[in-house]
Design a protein that fits this description.
about 0% helix; about 130 residues; 7-stranded mixed sheet; mainly beta
Length: about 130
């Protein structure tokens, strides 16, 4: 059974930073795309970032590119999302998810991800 546990969320002032972690069990992430999504109140879940299964390339939503960085630690079976220059509009519940097995392209759709964590709240105050 695959389990994903996110941590690292919290309350931060605009301009601040947070690092989210997603610890995976039941599946080795080295052969799967991993992604981060977020969902604000009253809005649909949206793509934030993904890392290719090879670990060599990453992709970001326009709204976070240049501010967020996705990374992974294979030894710890953990994926991270480093968030800098946070804005109030980044406020949301952040979810990590397991994506396609050795896919050729970046997976950015919710439907492409099979397993999800419970989410961690990020609140950015102005």
């Amino acid at each position: 059974q695959v389990q994903l546990v996110e941590s690292g969320g919290g309350l931060v002032q605009a301009g601040g930073s947070l690092r989210l972690s997603c610890a995976a069990s039941g599946r080795t992430i080295s052969s799967y795309a991993m992604g981060w999504f977020r969902q604000a109140p009253g809005k649909e879940r949206e793509f934030v970032s993904t890392i290719h299964w090879s670990g060599g390339t990453t992709f970001y939503a326009d709204s976070v590119r240049g501010r967020f960085t996705i990374a992974r630690d294979i030894a710890k079976n953990t994926v991270f999302l480093h968030m800098n220059s946070l804005k109030p509009e980044d406020t949301a519940v952040y979810y990590c998810a397991v994506g396609p097995y050795r896919g050729s392209f970046f997976a950015t759709a919710v439907s492409q991800y099979d397993f999800w964590g419970q989410g961690t709240q990020v609140t950015v105050s102005s």
